[in-house]
Structure formats: structure tokens, C-alpha cells
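Dear H.,

Thanks for agreeing to be a second pair of eyes. The structure we're designing against is below in C-alpha cell form, covering all 145 positions.
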């Protein structure tokens, strides 16, 4: 048994198991490694972005008070900033979840397969948007709903 594989663990899928859509060139080892590194970098970026945004949000809540004695425009501006910061935190969390899910699929040997239709996502799409878990057709269909 190879030293990197634990007893009972599922072996990692070989590079050739990443599917390609009709007309796509097969994945090279370098391209696969680029995708893996990009997913890990995205996870790290999103974790840092969430940290920064949550710190900013905490500051806004501490400084916000209840608005008593403050100009209504200042209160409105503070509320707007707080809402914007909360939206940014939520967006970063969603992007982090997408990147983590894509990386889990990558490590499990299921990366590049549309979670909706089961067909290959497409090499071009994955190179542009590595955290994609759906092919373009299924993603467009989902967004129309």
C-alpha cells in the first residue's frame, strides 16, 4: 500500500478520470495541478475576505449604537454600510462554500461532472470558473427559475 494512502481510504482518481466534453482536449497533469492550486487559493482568499468583512461588520455594530441623538442621515448611512457589509460577508461565504465543494469533488475524483445532468462540465468553463459544479446549460436553466 502506498504511504500516502490510508487503509480503507478511497484512492484519488487518476488525472485521466476528469471528464472532458465532446471536442475538448484531454486534461494535462499541469492543467489539473493549476485547477487544484486555484481552488485552494480561492478557498484561502475567501476565508481571508470573510475574516476582514466580519471584522468590519463588528466595528460597524460597535460604532452604530441605537441612533439616539444622531442625525437621521448618519443613522441611515450607518445602516446602509452595515447592510452592505452583511451582504459582502454572505456573498463571500457562498463563494467559499462553492470552492470547498468543488475541491471536495476534485479530491474525490468527481470533479468536472455536472451535479445536475451528470455530463462533463467542459474544460473551458472549469479553467475560467474552477468552482463550477454545473455545466453551462444546467446553470442557465437554474438561473432562469
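And this is the sequence the design step returned. I haven't edited it by hand at all.
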Amino acid at each position: 500500500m502506498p504511504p500516502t494512502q490510508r487503509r480503507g481510504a478511497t484512492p484519488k482518481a487518476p488525472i485521466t478520470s476528469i471528464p472532458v466534453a465532446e471536442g475538448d482536449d484531454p486534461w494535462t497533469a499541469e492543467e489539473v495541478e493549476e485547477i487544484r492550486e486555484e481552488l485552494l487559493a480561492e478557498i484561502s482568499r475567501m476565508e481571508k475576505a470573510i475574516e476582514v468583512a466580519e471584522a468590519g461588520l463588528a466595528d460597524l455594530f460597535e460604532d452604530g449604537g441605537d441612533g439616539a441623538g444622531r442625525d437621521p442621515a448618519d443613522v441611515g448611512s450607518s445602516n446602509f454600510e452595515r447592510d452592505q457589509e452583511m451582504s459582502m460577508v454572505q456573498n463571500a461565504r457562498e463563494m467559499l462554500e462553492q470552492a470547498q465543494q468543488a475541491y471536495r469533488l476534485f479530491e474525490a475524483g468527481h470533479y468536472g461532472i455536472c451535479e445536475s445532468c451528470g455530463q462533463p462540465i467542459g474544460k473551458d468553463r472549469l479553467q475560467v470558473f474552477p468552482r463550477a459544479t454545473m455545466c453551462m446549460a444546467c446553470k442557465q436553466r437554474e438561473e432562469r427559475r
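Two observations from my side: The helical segments are 29-64, 72-108, 123-128, 136-144. Residues 49 and 107 are 24 Å apart (CA to CA).

Warmly,
E.
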